[in-house]
């Protein structure tokens, strides 16, 4: 399915449904919630959400839920196993004609980066190996948000978290979840941002159409954990793309394609200076960390440009 076949060509093609209703207990300005709103609007109401413990498991607090489809809560490690059970049950109901084909539902895992890059990886690996037909949505707020923004496998080098409070911030490096999944030969992979809704809609449309295991990694600015005013969430999402910090890309049929190459990339400082978690990088003696970050981003895009030029 080529992106030119998409039903979403212009912003006015985007649905204004708000399938996920308002009035949840999630923080104001949550970029993860914004992306999930947009994703569910494309997937539609016939969606079963299997939710690993994290911020978004607070969306449904009995007896209230903003979901119009079904919702299942699991432990952090086992959402893909839960998704397998739901898919198997649906397949059985279809095979025995207890439900009609048009009553089938899309099975979706919803998890944070802590589950996706660490605690839930082994169940994920098993689900991909079994070619489970599901979409794994990781809202990446780059930390264990629900428990107070401790460092996770998704935390970027140099960011301050509640477990990396030192003058240099987090000394580890963000795990490359896209490459981890790619090494497992999934059906489809994509990175998205709620601040780029047209690009997001096209990718969700594709993930829905392609059978097999798919991953969507949604950039999720987190005012509470990243320390910025909630009204700046969309701007931070845009800056992540314009500085090249968050590449928008997809993987299909063994190939990675960048869906938006930022022209005239802005310096990474434009993105960093908006967030309290990076404030220490502007202290005397830490300029080298910003230089390293800029060098990493430049090296990434040099490599993308070279492979586009050579076709490799
Ligand atoms: C095995 C396990 N360890 C720790 C916890 C406590 N816990 C609940 S939610 C959470 C944070 C999850 O982080 P992430 O997956 O990134 O989602 P977010 O909270 O950021 O939405 C943690 C550590 C748990 N539920 N299970
Ligand atoms: S802590 Fe961050 S990711 Fe979690 S709900 Fe609040 S803004 Fe969203």
Structure in words:
The chain is α/β, with parallel strands linked by helices. It has a single domain (3-310), classed as Thiamin diphosphate (ThDP)-binding fold, Pyr/PP domains (Rossmann fold, 3-Layer(aba) Sandwich), CATH 3.40.50.970. It is built from 10 helices and 8 strands. The protein has helices at 31-43, 79-95, 113-119, 121-129, 177-182, 197-209, 223-226, 233-242, 269-272, 287-310, and strands at 47-52, 70-74, 106-112, 134-140, 188-193, 213-219, 248-252, 255-260. Strands 2-1-3-4-6-5-7-8 form an 8-stranded mixed beta sheet, with helices on both faces. Strand 7 (248-252) and strand 8 form a beta hairpin. The relative contact order is 0.13.
Query: What is the CATH architecture assignment?
Result: 3-Layer(aba) Sandwich
The CATH superfamily is identified as Thiamin diphosphate (ThDP)-binding fold, Pyr/PP domains
Order of helices and strands: HEEHEHHEHEHEHHEEHH
| CATH C-level category | Alpha Beta
Radius of gyration: 19 Å
Largest sheet: 8 strands, mixed
| Distance between the ends | 22 Å
Q: Could you tell me the strand content as a percent range?
A: 15-25%
- Number of domains as seen in the coordinates: 1
How many DSSP-defined strands?
8
Helix content: 25-40%
Number of helices: 10
**Low-confidence residue ranges:** none
Based on CA inertia axes, which overall geometry fits? globular
Spatial sequence of strands, sheet with the most strands:
2-1-3-4-6-5-7-8
The chain-level structural class is: alpha/beta
Q: Say which molecules are bound, naming each kind only once.
A: thiamine diphosphate, iron/sulfur cluster
């Amino acid at each position: 399915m080529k992106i030119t076949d998409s039903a979403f060509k212009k912003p006015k093609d985007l649905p204004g449904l708000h399938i996920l209703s308002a009035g949840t207990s999630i923080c104001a300005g949550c970029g993860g919630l914004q992306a999930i709103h947009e994703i569910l609007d494309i997937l539609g109401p016939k969606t079963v959400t299997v939710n690993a413990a994290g911020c978004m498991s607070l969306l449904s607090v009995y007896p209230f839920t903003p979901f119009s489809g079904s919702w299942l809560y699991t432990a952090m490690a086992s959402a893909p196993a839960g998704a397998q059970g739901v898919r198997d049950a649906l397949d059985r109901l279809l095979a025995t004609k207890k439900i009609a084909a048009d009553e089938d539902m899309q099975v979706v895992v919803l998890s944070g980066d802590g589950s996706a890059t660490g605690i839930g990886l082994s169940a994920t690996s098993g689900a991909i190996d079994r070619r489970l037909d599901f979409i794994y949505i990781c809202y990446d707020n780059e930390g264990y948000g629900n428990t107070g923004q401790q460092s996770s496998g998704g935390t970027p080098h140099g960011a301050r978290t509640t477990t990396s409070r030192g003058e240099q911030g987090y000394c580890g490096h963000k795990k490359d979840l896209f490459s981890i999944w790619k090494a497992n030969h999934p059906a489809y992979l994509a990175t998205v941002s709620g601040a780029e809704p047209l690009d997001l809609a096209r990718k969700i449309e594709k993930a829905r159409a392609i059978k097999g295991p798919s991953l969507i990694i949604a950039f999720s600015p987190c005012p509470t954990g990243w320390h910025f005013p909630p009204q700046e969430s969309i701007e931070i999402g845009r800056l992540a793309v314009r500085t090249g910090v968050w590449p928008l890309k997809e993987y299909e049929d063994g190939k990675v394609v960048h869906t938006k190459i930022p022209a005239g990339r802005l310096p990474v400082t434009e993105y960093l200076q908006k967030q309290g978690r990076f404030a220490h990088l502007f202290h005397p003696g830490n300029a080298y960390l910003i230089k390293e970050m800029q060098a990493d981003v430049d090296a990434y895009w040099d490599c993308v440009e070279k492979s586009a030029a050579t076709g490799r």
